[in-house]
């Protein structure tokens, strides 16, 4: 049985490796095409719905940045992975960010494991994350403030989440005034309709204007497998890729 499991592991690892190499190739080509320095856009592998064993496989393939969007699934998975991970040095420790909609009641658990939250779009969520991060800091569950990226709505559709550009300053001030939080930048999800290049250009414009007031908010989390090239051209510092690397969701999660 052990040999069979090892064989299955080899098949899955090889599958992930091939897809990961293809996405890394696309990202590297996009960065070069945009005239940007190599490595200036991070690849976040979105592992929601997939087990801790897949995260472990990705660790062996050199991945260190992961995105999760479901709590408490994420918290359990992160704890399981970190419990048996012995990095060679601090720089080798895997990092997990929250990229999905945040429920205020789950802020406490998110603050235990997330480096940053990419999907902040309401004052209530800022309050909840700030309180949760303060407790986590006080209890030694985290060593630094919780990073915050404000999710921007490009088309004003409330169903897709995000805050419109005009409301960004108030939310940014709320984050900046909480010393348990750090304002790191903006996150966008391009609308399904319309030209992808247009939406990413609009994201770049909003981010550049935002940085005139918040110079340290340098991150722009933008782009997924379908619009990676357009996002990189627009200055994305992090693309979030799930299915193109992980494959289709496990049946139990559909």
H/E element sequence: HEHEHEHEHEHEHEHEH
β-sheet strand percentage? 15-25%
Task: Indicate the low-confidence ranges by residue numbers.
Answer: none
> CATH superfamily name?
Alanine racemase
**Mean model confidence by pLDDT:** 92
How many beta-strand runs?
8
How many discrete structural domains?
Answer: 1
User: What CATH architecture label applies?
Assistant: Alpha-Beta Barrel
Q: How would you name the oligomeric state of the polypeptide chains in this document?
A: single chain
Share of helical residues: 40-55%
Q: How far is it from the N-terminal to the C-terminal residue, by CA?
A: 29 Å
Q: What is the level 1 CATH name?
A: Alpha Beta
Give a quick account of the main beta sheet: strands, pairing sense, barrel closure: 4 strands, parallel
Strand order of the largest sheet: 3-2-1-8
The coarse overall form would be: globular
The structure class reads: alpha/beta
Pfam family, one: Ala_racemase_N
Protein name: Pyridoxal phosphate homeostasis protein
Domain Alanine racemase N-terminal: 20-250
Organism: Gordonia amicalis
